[in-house]
Amino acid sequence: MNATVSNAKPVKVVGLIAMIAGVVLIIAGAATALVVRDQLVAENITLGEDAAMFQGNVVDGPIDAYLQAEVIDMHAREMAGGQTYAELDREDPVRATVMNGSFLRASLFTSIIAFGIAAFAAGMGILFILVGWALRKLVDTAPVTTANTPVQSV
């Protein structure tokens, strides 16, 4: 009985492609996080004394952005008597200020989501590298047989 020929080259190529994709994902994730951070720093937002923690810090990451969004919400609700923008009467003079606070919070939450997506991309990049490495390692350790090699019974 003859054994089948093992063709490891396609598996190695897929492993290499996965590893390259992993590196690209890590670079893209890191670049995205840096761009978002730079944009937040450029806005020169500083956490106030009424923030839950990190008072006086420049907003430059997802935790700072979240804390600042909470401070904005707290101030907007104080101005509006505990009401949200949607709950205020259309003629209420505070409505425009509360609306601006809502827009600022949405922008800060968008940066938080961007940081999360960047971290997810980098994490997937690590996973792709590991899968690619495993594929290539499995092929390297698999016994290679040829069509003319007899299979020995156990």
Task: Provide structural commentary.
By secondary structure, the chain is an all-alpha fold. It is 64% helix and 0% strand. The protein contains 3 helices and no strands. It has helices at residues 9-42, 62-79, 95-141. The longest helix is centred in the last third of the chain and has 47 residues, at 95-141. It is elongated, with a radius of gyration of 27 Å. The relative contact order is 0.23.
Short description:
The chain is an all-alpha fold and 154 residues long. It contains 3 helices and no strands.
Question: What's the structural blueprint in terms of helices and strands?
Answer:
Elements: H1 9-42, H2 62-79, H3 95-141
How helical, in percent, are the residues? 55-70%
Continuous helix count: 3
Q: What would the average pLDDT be, to the nearest integer?
A: 88
For the largest beta-sheet, the strand count, sense and barrel status come to: none
Work out the number of β strands.
Answer: 0
